[in-house]
Here is the input.
Amino acid sequence: MAGVITVNLPVFLIILPLVAAFILPTIGRRQRLQENLLLVVGSLGILGAGYLAYLVMDGGISSVYQMGGWPAPWGIELQVDGLAAFFLLVITFVLFPVFLFSRGNLAEEVGGREKTARFYVLILLLGGALAGMALTNDLFNVYVLVEVATISCVGLVSSRNHPLSAEAAFRYLILATFGSALILGGIGFIYIITGHLNMGFAAQELAQVWQYRPHVVWMALIFLLTGFGIKAALFPLHLWLPDAHSIAPTPASALLSGLAVKGYLICLFKFFYRVAGPFLLQELAIDKIMKWAGLLGIVLASLMAIRQDELKRRLAFSTVAQIGYLFLGASLLNTRGLAGTFFYLASHAVIKAALFLSAGTMLAATGKEKVSQLAGIGRKMPVTTAVFTIASLGLVGVPLFSGFVGKWYLLLGALDGGDFLSALVIIGGSVLCAAYLFPVVRLAYFEPAEIEEAEDPGIPQKIALVFLAVLVVLLGVMPGTVLDLAGRAALDLLTP
Amino acid sequence: MRILLEKLLINYPFFFAIILFVMGAFTVLTRSNLFKKLIGINIMEGGIFLFFVAAGNIKGGAVPILVENNPGMTYINPLTSALMLTGIVVSVSVTAFALALIIRLYKIYGTVDARRIAEMRKEVKERWQE
Here is the structure.
């Protein structure tokens, strides 16, 4: 029995949220039971992902899982490597506090108690799709998973009981579908010249045929970069993100900003590193495009964030800037830069979830959307504001917080490649980040209170917020294990 | 030039796929009517589907059902058609979802024109906050 579970653990991690998504609506109106089921799924996910990470680091599991026992060219494979284990851990550790946060706290934002079940279903589907993205090793499966994730993301945005949610969701849906079409086109190009949908076989074939058809490969990679760039909000393609992420219900904002955009990023990395390979990226100058989009994103999106007065919009623009870091790190094409990218990805997922959840709590308690209206909130809502402050320190990259470790490795990666401009922007981005987050903290603590009544949220919400804050500090103080896993993920991706 | 033309003639399905794709993309990006945007998305996806199916086609190839006493027969590649079946299902569900959103937008704004909706946003938001 135990052996069966160990061997099939990767598949269980994908199936678990999907099965729960189908069971949950059948429970109907019994909300408490639904929420308990979510917590069980969340805890099982953390246990499973943790055990999988242990098995991968320990070498106790075969790196290829064949679906239904069919070997590769005929069957579909899952790749159980450092990258998959790492991203699964990130997913589960962000999903769990979001489940906890939604407990008994959602009805107002989605417009009624009876509508919460739909919201939970969408979250679970998104979780299943992301787990699939972490594990998949098949080009077409990526497309299907990307579509599942996209539709659930748009559903989450449109579930907010707010007149502007439909418009934000529609714009998101149109642009995201545009991106999907491009991704499918890119997959088509790769399939036509290689004849394989399995990433490993496609990579082998591509290494030989690319010199006869460099233009086709270039087109394929550009299609993929643009398609995934729209979905992951790469800088000039981020137009849908600020509206969608600021309108969505609070737990959904945390998930969309913290996790969903990274799922697409992981898929893009798989295409670029596992299928095309670093050599081809360099030869076709794709890494230059990624680098410049990342650099522009860090600087310009941060500047836009400073100009936003609505707190959630400011955080949404900050997400665009942080995605810039991830693209910049991935364009460095060395192990240290890529390990830094993965660590930064994990740290940003946790931090952005904490920021959005605490900001959403403040907005719900006070009804104020603007930063300038939140003066003195630190005394009314001590726990929430403390979590917001810790997460801000983490995102800016103050030592002993998680953002610092990620940025440090990105910096080392940039200097390894002798890239001083990138190093400068990595440091400058931190200053800009401080410029848009610290005023909120200053207003919250050091200004006379203008808000009459505001209280910290209920116990489950407090636990969720503190859980995330503790993760931010833990990742900063003891990054060892996670850093090892990120390094392993980078190594797995760079050496086929 | 002649070689290029000949190649185009032989591979004409790809040519049409590109035309459909560009037509769709152009419609999505330039039209402000939400329905037209949605139709544009569907045309664009149609282009991609044609691209895939054409890639799997072999001239004179038969439907890939093996016939035992006819070993010399050529069959088309069934994989791409099967993949596009999935693609069509995805496209249909996206269309249904988008139509539902358009209905909601029409209920709120009373129009399906993206530009008018953008103009009315502030007004609607203020009305909601009251």
